[in-house]
């Protein structure tokens, strides 16, 4: 392989990367995908699932016991309901987005 062949090989690979940069439909993985997977999808989802379980238990206690159906306890019951909503939203919005990037899943991309 002479210098001319080597130069033409380098220019063709540069042209291919320039085509990818101009293509509006090209997908490039974001930075720190592995770290985001472990922090958001594994740790964050685990904490969110524990939060869903504990807040559901708290809501169940406040809803089923007659002595806790007073206005002073209503705040805690509503806080548990809204915290369940926030935890479910975290799993659906944040974790699905990171899993989509980590696994390069078209199905998760369409679902998100």
Automatic annotation (TrEMBL):
**What ranges does the record list as Low complexity composition bias?**
1-18
* Keyword field: Membrane, Transmembrane, Transmembrane helix
Please tell me whether the keyword Transmembrane is annotated for this protein.
yes
- Which SUPFAM superfamilies does the UniProt entry name for this protein? Family A G protein-coupled receptor-like (SSF81321)
Protein's UniProt keywords contain Transmembrane: yes
Q: Where in the cell is it found?
A: Membrane
Task: State the GO CC annotations.
Answer: membrane
The chain positions of domain G-protein coupled receptors family 1 profile read 54-112
Per the record, the major location class is membrane
Region (Disordered) location: 1-22
* Residues that span the membrane, as ranges: 37-63, 75-100
Record-linked InterPro entries: GPCR_Rhodpsn_7TM (IPR017452)
What top-level branch of life does the organism fall under? Eukaryota
Protein name according to UniProt: G-protein coupled receptors family 1 profile domain-containing protein
């Amino acid at each position: 392989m002479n210098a001319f062949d080597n130069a033409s090989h380098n220019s063709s690979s540069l042209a291919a990367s320039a085509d990818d940069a101009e293509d509006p439909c090209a997908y490039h993985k974001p930075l720190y995908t592995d770290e985001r997977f472990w922090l958001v999808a594994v740790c964050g989802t685990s904490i969110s699932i524990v939060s869903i379980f504990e807040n559901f238990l708290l809501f169940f206690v406040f809803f089923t016991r007659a002595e806790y159906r007073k206005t002073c306890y209503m705040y805690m019951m509503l806080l548990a309901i809204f915290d369940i909503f926030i935890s479910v939203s975290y799993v659906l919005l944040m974790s699905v987005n990171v899993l989509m990037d980590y696994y390069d899943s078209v199905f998760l991309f369409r679902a998100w």
